[in-house]
Amino acid sequence: MQRGSFQWMKTLNKSIILNKIRTGGPISRAQIAKDTKLTPPTVSSIVKELIEQGIVRESAQGTSQGGRKPTMLIINSTEFYIIGIDAGPRTVKFVLADLSGELKEEKIIPIDRKITGHQFINILVTGIKSVLSARKALAGKIAGIGVAMHGVVKVEEGVSEFAPNLDLHDVAIKEELEKAFDYEVKVENDARAMALGEAWFGDSEGVKSMLALNIGSGIGAGLMIDGKLYHGEYDLAGEIGHMTLDVNGEECTCGNNGCLQTVASGPAIEKRAKQLLAEGRAGGLASLAGGNPDQVSGELVYQAAVQGDKDSKAILEETGTYIGIGLTNLIHVINPSKIVIGGGVSSAGGMILQPIKQTIKARALTNEAKQTEIAISPLQSNATVLGAVALVLTELFDPLPRNSD
Ligand SMILES: [Zn+2]
Protein backbone atom coordinates (compact mmCIF):
# COMPACT_ATOMS: atom_id res chain seq x y z
CA MET A 1 0.00 0.00 0.00
CA GLN A 2 1.46 3.34 -1.02
CA ARG A 3 2.60 5.98 1.36
CA GLY A 4 -0.11 8.47 2.25
CA SER A 5 -2.98 6.04 1.67
CA PHE A 6 -3.75 6.00 5.37
CA GLN A 7 -4.46 9.70 5.41
CA TRP A 8 -7.69 9.19 3.52
CA MET A 9 -8.41 5.96 5.33
CA LYS A 10 -8.17 7.46 8.72
CA THR A 11 -10.73 9.57 10.45
CA LEU A 12 -11.35 9.72 14.15
CA ASN A 13 -14.64 7.79 14.05
CA LYS A 14 -13.17 5.21 11.72
CA SER A 15 -10.28 4.58 14.09
CA ILE A 16 -12.60 4.35 17.06
CA ILE A 17 -14.75 1.75 15.28
CA LEU A 18 -11.73 -0.18 13.99
CA ASN A 19 -10.23 -0.30 17.45
CA LYS A 20 -13.54 -1.44 18.92
CA ILE A 21 -13.67 -4.31 16.43
CA ARG A 22 -10.02 -5.17 17.11
CA THR A 23 -10.40 -5.33 20.88
CA GLY A 24 -14.04 -6.42 21.12
CA GLY A 25 -14.61 -8.52 18.01
CA PRO A 26 -16.54 -10.51 16.99
CA ILE A 27 -18.96 -7.68 17.63
CA SER A 28 -22.25 -6.54 16.09
CA ARG A 29 -22.91 -3.11 14.56
CA ALA A 30 -25.49 -2.43 17.25
CA GLN A 31 -23.00 -3.22 20.02
CA ILE A 32 -20.37 -0.95 18.43
CA ALA A 33 -22.89 1.90 18.37
CA LYS A 34 -23.79 1.25 21.99
CA ASP A 35 -20.14 1.07 23.19
CA THR A 36 -18.80 4.00 21.17
CA LYS A 37 -21.89 6.22 21.51
CA LEU A 38 -21.82 6.80 17.73
CA THR A 39 -25.19 6.74 15.95
CA PRO A 40 -26.21 3.45 14.26
CA PRO A 41 -26.27 5.10 10.77
CA THR A 42 -22.69 6.43 11.31
CA VAL A 43 -21.51 2.99 12.41
CA SER A 44 -23.24 1.34 9.44
CA SER A 45 -21.75 3.63 6.84
CA ILE A 46 -18.22 3.48 8.28
CA VAL A 47 -18.40 -0.31 8.65
CA LYS A 48 -19.52 -0.49 5.00
CA GLU A 49 -16.42 1.47 3.99
CA LEU A 50 -14.13 -0.67 6.15
CA ILE A 51 -15.55 -3.83 4.58
CA GLU A 52 -15.03 -2.38 1.09
CA GLN A 53 -11.42 -1.58 2.02
CA GLY A 54 -11.01 -5.18 3.13
CA ILE A 55 -9.85 -4.46 6.67
CA VAL A 56 -13.05 -5.66 8.33
CA ARG A 57 -15.14 -8.67 7.43
CA GLU A 58 -18.36 -10.26 8.57
CA SER A 59 -18.01 -13.49 10.51
CA ALA A 60 -20.57 -16.00 11.82
CA GLN A 61 -23.86 -14.71 13.14
CA GLY A 62 -24.15 -13.89 16.82
CA THR A 63 -26.86 -14.85 19.24
CA SER A 64 -30.16 -13.04 18.99
CA GLN A 65 -31.36 -10.74 21.73
CA GLY A 66 -34.87 -11.25 20.35
CA GLY A 67 -35.46 -10.58 16.66
CA ARG A 68 -33.06 -11.70 13.96
CA LYS A 69 -29.48 -12.72 14.71
CA PRO A 70 -26.97 -9.88 14.28
CA THR A 71 -24.06 -10.24 11.86
CA MET A 72 -20.77 -10.14 13.70
CA LEU A 73 -17.72 -8.19 12.56
CA ILE A 74 -14.04 -9.05 12.92
CA ILE A 75 -10.74 -7.60 11.69
CA ASN A 76 -9.66 -9.22 8.45
CA SER A 77 -6.15 -9.72 9.76
CA THR A 78 -4.67 -11.10 6.54
CA GLU A 79 -5.74 -8.12 4.42
CA PHE A 80 -2.71 -6.04 5.39
CA TYR A 81 0.81 -6.89 6.48
CA ILE A 82 3.48 -5.00 8.36
CA ILE A 83 7.25 -5.20 8.31
CA GLY A 84 8.68 -4.98 11.82
CA ILE A 85 12.37 -4.41 12.54
CA ASP A 86 14.21 -4.83 15.86
CA ALA A 87 17.47 -3.01 15.17
CA GLY A 88 20.59 -3.75 17.07
CA PRO A 89 22.96 -3.40 18.63
CA ARG A 90 24.26 -6.88 17.76
CA THR A 91 21.66 -8.15 15.31
CA VAL A 92 18.84 -6.75 13.22
CA LYS A 93 15.67 -8.84 13.18
CA PHE A 94 13.12 -8.43 10.38
CA VAL A 95 9.61 -9.87 10.41
CA LEU A 96 6.59 -9.78 8.16
CA ALA A 97 3.44 -9.97 10.29
CA ASP A 98 -0.29 -9.84 9.67
CA LEU A 99 -2.62 -7.50 11.56
CA SER A 100 -3.00 -9.98 14.43
CA GLY A 101 0.78 -10.04 14.94
CA GLU A 102 1.24 -13.50 13.46
CA LEU A 103 4.74 -13.77 11.97
CA LYS A 104 4.78 -14.94 8.35
CA GLU A 105 8.44 -14.35 7.60
CA GLU A 106 11.53 -13.79 9.70
CA LYS A 107 15.14 -12.87 9.01
CA ILE A 108 18.11 -11.97 11.20
CA ILE A 109 21.20 -10.10 10.02
CA PRO A 110 24.12 -9.91 12.48
CA ILE A 111 26.10 -6.71 12.98
CA ASP A 112 29.53 -8.12 13.65
CA ARG A 113 31.74 -5.09 13.24
CA LYS A 114 31.82 -1.35 13.61
CA ILE A 115 29.58 0.20 10.95
CA THR A 116 28.74 3.62 9.56
CA GLY A 117 25.25 5.09 9.36
CA HIS A 118 25.25 4.41 5.63
CA GLN A 119 26.16 0.75 6.16
CA PHE A 120 23.47 0.48 8.82
CA ILE A 121 20.82 1.74 6.37
CA ASN A 122 22.09 -0.77 3.81
CA ILE A 123 21.54 -3.59 6.32
CA LEU A 124 17.94 -2.38 6.85
CA VAL A 125 17.28 -2.16 3.11
CA THR A 126 18.77 -5.63 2.49
CA GLY A 127 16.67 -7.21 5.24
CA ILE A 128 13.43 -5.56 4.10
CA LYS A 129 14.04 -6.66 0.51
CA SER A 130 14.72 -10.16 1.74
CA VAL A 131 11.42 -10.58 3.64
CA LEU A 132 9.52 -8.92 0.78
CA SER A 133 11.01 -11.17 -1.87
CA ALA A 134 10.10 -14.22 0.22
CA ARG A 135 6.43 -13.09 0.04
CA LYS A 136 6.19 -11.34 -3.32
CA ALA A 137 2.41 -11.71 -3.44
CA LEU A 138 2.02 -9.51 -0.34
CA ALA A 139 4.04 -6.51 -1.56
CA GLY A 140 0.85 -4.61 -2.45
CA LYS A 141 -0.64 -5.28 0.98
CA ILE A 142 2.11 -3.79 3.17
CA ALA A 143 0.62 -1.17 5.50
CA GLY A 144 4.00 0.14 6.60
CA ILE A 145 7.37 -0.48 8.19
CA GLY A 146 8.01 -0.12 11.93
CA VAL A 147 11.56 0.20 13.21
CA ALA A 148 12.51 -0.32 16.86
CA MET A 149 15.94 1.26 17.20
CA HIS A 150 18.19 1.11 20.24
CA GLY A 151 19.36 4.39 21.68
CA VAL A 152 17.84 7.86 21.48
CA VAL A 153 15.33 8.33 18.66
CA LYS A 154 13.72 11.55 17.43
CA VAL A 155 10.32 10.00 16.94
CA GLU A 156 8.54 12.54 14.70
CA GLU A 157 11.50 12.82 12.32
CA GLY A 158 12.31 9.10 12.49
CA VAL A 159 15.97 9.85 13.16
CA SER A 160 18.32 7.78 15.30
CA GLU A 161 19.89 10.65 17.20
CA PHE A 162 22.40 8.59 19.17
CA ALA A 163 22.87 4.82 19.20
CA PRO A 164 25.62 4.41 21.84
CA ASN A 165 26.32 0.71 21.38
CA LEU A 166 26.81 1.15 17.62
CA ASP A 167 28.34 4.60 18.05
CA LEU A 168 26.02 6.04 15.39
CA HIS A 169 24.72 9.62 15.32
CA ASP A 170 21.86 11.24 13.38
CA VAL A 171 20.90 8.40 11.05
CA ALA A 172 17.78 9.43 9.08
CA ILE A 173 16.11 6.01 9.14
CA LYS A 174 12.59 7.14 8.15
CA GLU A 175 13.76 9.36 5.31
CA GLU A 176 16.16 6.77 3.87
CA LEU A 177 13.70 3.87 4.06
CA GLU A 178 10.84 5.92 2.61
CA LYS A 179 13.18 6.81 -0.25
CA ALA A 180 14.02 3.14 -0.82
CA PHE A 181 10.46 1.79 -0.38
CA ASP A 182 7.16 3.52 -0.97
CA TYR A 183 5.79 2.55 2.43
CA GLU A 184 5.04 4.59 5.54
CA VAL A 185 7.91 4.22 8.05
CA LYS A 186 7.65 4.69 11.83
CA VAL A 187 10.74 4.74 14.04
CA GLU A 188 10.74 4.40 17.82
CA ASN A 189 13.20 3.65 20.61
CA ASP A 190 13.44 -0.13 21.08
CA ALA A 191 12.37 -0.23 24.73
CA ARG A 192 9.35 1.97 24.04
CA ALA A 193 8.48 -0.27 21.09
CA MET A 194 8.77 -3.25 23.40
CA ALA A 195 6.30 -1.62 25.81
CA LEU A 196 3.90 -1.15 22.92
CA GLY A 197 4.38 -4.78 21.86
CA GLU A 198 3.56 -5.96 25.37
CA ALA A 199 0.47 -3.75 25.47
CA TRP A 200 -0.83 -4.95 22.08
CA PHE A 201 0.18 -8.59 22.09
CA GLY A 202 1.25 -9.52 25.65
CA ASP A 203 -0.85 -9.89 28.78
CA SER A 204 -0.90 -6.19 29.57
CA GLU A 205 -3.82 -4.86 27.57
CA GLY A 206 -6.00 -2.64 29.68
CA VAL A 207 -3.34 -2.10 32.37
CA LYS A 208 -3.57 1.54 33.41
CA SER A 209 0.13 2.32 33.47
CA MET A 210 2.88 -0.09 32.52
CA LEU A 211 6.64 0.12 32.48
CA ALA A 212 8.39 -2.34 30.16
CA LEU A 213 12.10 -2.91 30.65
CA ASN A 214 14.42 -4.23 27.99
CA ILE A 215 17.54 -5.67 29.61
CA GLY A 216 20.04 -6.98 27.11
CA SER A 217 23.32 -5.48 25.99
CA GLY A 218 21.84 -2.15 27.16
CA ILE A 219 18.92 -1.30 29.42
CA GLY A 220 15.98 0.82 28.32
CA ALA A 221 12.39 1.26 29.38
CA GLY A 222 9.11 2.21 27.78
CA LEU A 223 6.25 3.72 29.70
CA MET A 224 2.60 3.32 28.67
CA ILE A 225 0.08 5.57 30.36
CA ASP A 226 -3.61 4.98 29.59
CA GLY A 227 -2.71 3.00 26.50
CA LYS A 228 -0.29 5.61 25.08
CA LEU A 229 3.48 5.68 24.99
CA TYR A 230 5.08 8.45 26.98
CA HIS A 231 8.00 10.17 25.22
CA GLY A 232 8.90 13.19 27.33
CA GLU A 233 9.79 16.59 25.95
CA TYR A 234 12.72 15.44 23.77
CA ASP A 235 11.96 11.73 23.31
CA LEU A 236 14.42 10.85 26.05
CA ALA A 237 11.99 9.30 28.55
CA GLY A 238 12.93 5.76 29.57
CA GLU A 239 16.72 5.88 29.26
CA ILE A 240 17.01 4.17 32.61
CA GLY A 241 20.13 2.21 31.67
CA HIS A 242 21.96 5.46 32.33
CA MET A 243 20.44 6.04 35.76
CA THR A 244 23.44 6.48 38.07
CA LEU A 245 23.61 3.83 40.80
CA ASP A 246 27.22 4.36 41.89
CA VAL A 247 28.94 7.70 41.32
CA ASN A 248 32.31 5.97 41.75
CA GLY A 249 31.37 3.00 39.58
CA GLU A 250 32.76 1.77 36.27
CA GLU A 251 32.71 3.95 33.19
CA CYS A 252 29.68 3.44 30.93
CA THR A 253 29.41 3.65 27.11
CA CYS A 254 27.76 7.06 27.67
CA GLY A 255 30.86 8.44 29.42
CA ASN A 256 29.34 8.65 32.92
CA ASN A 257 30.23 6.34 35.77
CA GLY A 258 28.21 3.68 37.56
CA CYS A 259 25.16 3.65 35.29
CA LEU A 260 22.61 0.85 35.89
CA GLN A 261 23.76 -0.89 32.72
CA THR A 262 27.35 -1.12 33.94
CA VAL A 263 26.10 -3.48 36.68
CA ALA A 264 22.94 -5.14 35.33
CA SER A 265 23.19 -5.65 31.54
CA GLY A 266 24.25 -8.77 29.61
CA PRO A 267 27.83 -7.46 29.13
CA ALA A 268 28.01 -6.59 32.86
CA ILE A 269 27.09 -10.20 33.76
CA GLU A 270 29.69 -11.46 31.30
CA LYS A 271 32.38 -9.22 32.71
CA ARG A 272 31.80 -10.25 36.33
CA ALA A 273 31.76 -13.92 35.33
CA LYS A 274 35.11 -13.55 33.56
CA GLN A 275 36.58 -11.87 36.64
CA LEU A 276 35.49 -14.83 38.78
CA LEU A 277 36.99 -17.30 36.32
CA ALA A 278 40.27 -15.38 36.41
CA GLU A 279 40.22 -15.79 40.21
CA GLY A 280 39.75 -19.54 39.76
CA ARG A 281 36.14 -19.48 40.97
CA ALA A 282 32.82 -20.44 39.32
CA GLY A 283 34.05 -23.96 38.56
CA GLY A 284 30.72 -25.05 37.06
CA LEU A 285 30.80 -22.16 34.63
CA ALA A 286 34.46 -22.82 33.79
CA SER A 287 33.71 -26.39 32.77
CA LEU A 288 30.66 -25.33 30.71
CA ALA A 289 32.90 -22.83 28.92
CA GLY A 290 35.46 -25.58 28.30
CA GLY A 291 38.01 -23.52 30.23
CA ASN A 292 37.81 -20.76 27.60
CA PRO A 293 36.74 -17.38 29.06
CA ASP A 294 35.81 -16.19 25.54
CA GLN A 295 32.96 -18.72 25.59
CA VAL A 296 31.38 -17.03 28.61
CA SER A 297 28.06 -15.29 27.91
CA GLY A 298 25.08 -14.26 30.00
CA GLU A 299 23.27 -17.34 28.70
CA LEU A 300 26.11 -19.62 29.85
CA VAL A 301 26.14 -18.02 33.31
CA TYR A 302 22.42 -18.81 33.52
CA GLN A 303 23.01 -22.44 32.47
CA ALA A 304 25.78 -22.80 35.05
CA ALA A 305 23.49 -21.33 37.72
CA VAL A 306 20.71 -23.77 36.80
CA GLN A 307 23.22 -26.63 37.12
CA GLY A 308 24.05 -25.48 40.63
CA ASP A 309 27.16 -23.31 40.22
CA LYS A 310 26.95 -21.09 43.31
CA ASP A 311 29.11 -18.24 41.98
CA SER A 312 27.05 -18.01 38.77
CA LYS A 313 23.88 -17.97 40.84
CA ALA A 314 25.31 -15.18 42.97
CA ILE A 315 26.07 -13.11 39.85
CA LEU A 316 22.43 -13.38 38.73
CA GLU A 317 21.18 -12.57 42.22
CA GLU A 318 23.42 -9.52 42.38
CA THR A 319 22.16 -8.46 38.93
CA GLY A 320 18.57 -8.85 40.12
CA THR A 321 19.34 -6.78 43.21
CA TYR A 322 20.73 -3.92 41.10
CA ILE A 323 17.71 -4.06 38.77
CA GLY A 324 15.48 -4.07 41.86
CA ILE A 325 17.19 -0.93 43.15
CA GLY A 326 16.72 0.78 39.77
CA LEU A 327 13.07 -0.29 39.67
CA THR A 328 12.44 0.94 43.20
CA ASN A 329 13.71 4.37 42.09
CA LEU A 330 11.30 4.22 39.15
CA ILE A 331 8.37 3.07 41.28
CA HIS A 332 8.94 6.10 43.48
CA VAL A 333 8.93 8.45 40.50
CA ILE A 334 6.29 6.87 38.26
CA ASN A 335 4.31 4.45 40.45
CA PRO A 336 3.25 2.15 37.56
CA SER A 337 0.47 -0.47 37.87
CA LYS A 338 2.74 -3.11 36.36
CA ILE A 339 6.37 -3.68 35.31
CA VAL A 340 7.24 -6.13 32.53
CA ILE A 341 10.83 -7.29 32.11
CA GLY A 342 12.09 -8.49 28.74
CA GLY A 343 15.33 -8.72 26.78
CA GLY A 344 18.10 -11.33 26.95
CA VAL A 345 18.74 -11.01 30.69
CA SER A 346 15.06 -11.71 31.45
CA SER A 347 15.45 -15.25 30.07
CA ALA A 348 17.06 -16.06 33.45
CA GLY A 349 13.42 -16.02 34.64
CA GLY A 350 12.82 -16.66 38.33
CA MET A 351 16.51 -16.54 39.10
CA ILE A 352 16.49 -12.84 38.34
CA LEU A 353 12.85 -12.12 39.23
CA GLN A 354 13.13 -13.27 42.85
CA PRO A 355 15.96 -10.90 43.87
CA ILE A 356 14.20 -8.08 41.97
CA LYS A 357 10.99 -8.65 43.94
CA GLN A 358 12.85 -9.04 47.25
CA THR A 359 14.76 -5.81 46.68
CA ILE A 360 11.58 -3.86 45.87
CA LYS A 361 9.87 -5.38 48.90
CA ALA A 362 12.76 -4.32 51.11
CA ARG A 363 13.14 -0.81 49.72
CA ALA A 364 9.82 0.57 48.46
CA LEU A 365 8.18 3.21 50.62
CA THR A 366 4.64 1.88 51.04
CA ASN A 367 2.99 -1.52 51.23
CA GLU A 368 1.19 -0.94 47.91
CA ALA A 369 4.46 0.00 46.22
CA LYS A 370 6.13 -3.14 47.63
CA GLN A 371 3.38 -5.19 45.92
CA THR A 372 3.85 -3.64 42.45
CA GLU A 373 3.18 -6.37 39.88
CA ILE A 374 6.45 -7.50 38.24
CA ALA A 375 6.35 -10.01 35.37
CA ILE A 376 8.77 -11.53 32.90
CA SER A 377 7.72 -10.69 29.32
CA PRO A 378 5.38 -13.31 27.86
CA LEU A 379 6.54 -12.33 24.35
CA GLN A 380 10.23 -12.76 25.20
CA SER A 381 12.59 -12.27 22.26
CA ASN A 382 9.74 -11.21 19.96
CA ALA A 383 8.46 -8.41 22.20
CA THR A 384 10.45 -5.63 20.56
CA VAL A 385 9.88 -6.71 16.98
CA LEU A 386 6.13 -7.08 17.67
CA GLY A 387 6.30 -3.60 19.15
CA ALA A 388 7.76 -2.40 15.85
CA VAL A 389 4.76 -3.99 14.13
CA ALA A 390 2.45 -2.30 16.63
CA LEU A 391 3.95 1.11 15.73
CA VAL A 392 2.22 0.83 12.37
CA LEU A 393 -0.91 -0.73 13.89
CA THR A 394 -1.19 2.24 16.24
CA GLU A 395 -1.28 4.53 13.24
CA LEU A 396 -4.01 2.43 11.72
CA PHE A 397 -6.20 1.74 14.75
CA ASP A 398 -5.62 4.36 17.39
CA PRO A 399 -7.50 7.64 17.21
CA LEU A 400 -4.71 9.50 19.04
CA PRO A 401 -1.50 7.52 18.63
CA ARG A 402 0.70 9.89 20.64
CA ASN A 403 0.28 11.28 24.09
CA SER A 404 -0.23 15.00 24.17
CA ASP A 405 3.10 15.10 25.99
ZN1 LIG B 1 25.59 5.34 30.98
TrEMBL record:
SUPFAM superfamilies: Actin-like ATPase domain, Winged helix' DNA-binding domain. Belongs to the ROK (NagC/XylR) family. The lineage of its organism: Bacteria, Bacillati, Bacillota, Bacilli, Bacillales. This is ROK family protein (Putative glucokinase). PANTHER family: BIFUNCTIONAL UDP-N-ACETYLGLUCOSAMINE 2-EPIMERASE_N-ACETYLMANNOSAMINE KINASE, ROK (REPRESSOR, ORF, KINASE) FAMILY. One of its GO terms (molecular function) is kinase activity. It holds the Pfam family HTH_24. InterPro entries: ArsR-like_HTH, ATPase_NBD, ROK, ROK_cs, WH-like_DNA-bd_sf, WH_DNA-bd_sf. Gene3D superfamilies: 3.30.420.40, Winged helix-like DNA-binding domain superfamily/Winged helix DNA-binding domain. Keywords: Carbohydrate metabolism, DNA-binding, Kinase, Transferase, Xylose metabolism. One of its GO terms (biological process) is D-xylose metabolic process. Transcriptional repressor of xylose-utilizing enzymes. It comes from Sediminibacillus halophilus.
